[in-house]
Description:
By secondary structure, the chain is of the alpha/beta class. The protein has 13 helices and 9 strands.
Amino acid sequence: MKVSFQIGKIMGIPIKLHITFLLILPVFALIFANNPAPYGFSNVSEVSTRYILAFATTLLLFSSVLLHEIGHSYFAKKFGVKIDSITLMLFGGVASMEEIPQNPAQEAKMAVAGPMTSFVIGAICLIFNNVLSDLQPFFSDTNIFHVIWLIGYINLIVGVFNLLPAFPMDGGRILRAWYAINMPYVKATQKAAQIGKMFAIMMAVLGVLANPWLILIAFFIYIGATEEARTTTVSVVLEKVPVRKIMSSNIISVQSSMTVDDLSKLMFEKKHMGYPVIDDNSLKGIVTFTDVLTVPTQERANVLVSDVMTKDVFTISADADSSEALKIISTQNIGRILVTDNNSIVGILSRTDLVRALQLLSE
């Protein structure tokens, strides 16, 4: 099931809406419509106007969140980081980056760019609201002042909230950059993650006493800190380890004319779950056990490998860092990647190979 869809591009970056964003949009509009001033519009007598204002405020709020993420992305692109997409979802926006620079100064600039964007939006809205307020006698409908003030106020809160040292939020990333000046990057990440978890626990306790929403936010912060620490450790451990050192060089290939039934028998015999498909020394694709499962057992004798194989094959150089292979396997959600050397296939690297290497290297 597709959980997000693209609505456009900014600076060449695909902008996506997650399904949770579509679910939370009416919830926010409902909250604004039924909250009293100054944080809502329940004092507006006409119901239709009240909900129009609430919905407009919600859209402007998430537009501000998008600008917040664009602030991060601008500096990321400036430092050579590839941005796969920006996705608006339940708790705001997420810029999907290929990697976070391990240079402390660069990471700090990227992290602080988001909150600074929110502060600038907030300041502009509040200043603009004050200017319009002086012209209030000339306006028949002053609800526009309320909308502008509310967007400005919320952006200032968002900026402050994101600067809390709760990793993996922006403040936590700034904290990691500060730690990384005087210690290894993995240790800096682990220390920032520990502080992030501590903030998450404190937030959860506060949520029990005051606002249940804080419990949910705390949960995501705790999980995010744990996952960030794990992935950073994995990535750094696998850095500078050439793919050729952990790949399987015993390549067993199959032909596209082989039946799926024969392929399943070969898999049972050789105990490999994926094979490159090669015809006349030319790579045609890759076929895996998952592809076999798409064909009913009784039909496998009549279906060829060419009918089920994946033609878009991901490859990596044998001299590349293993962390690069992990990135491709993770982002593309594939089980294995073919290894090449001078345009010839010299091995195959699976997710299992990476896990095994990580266990040995960690020891």
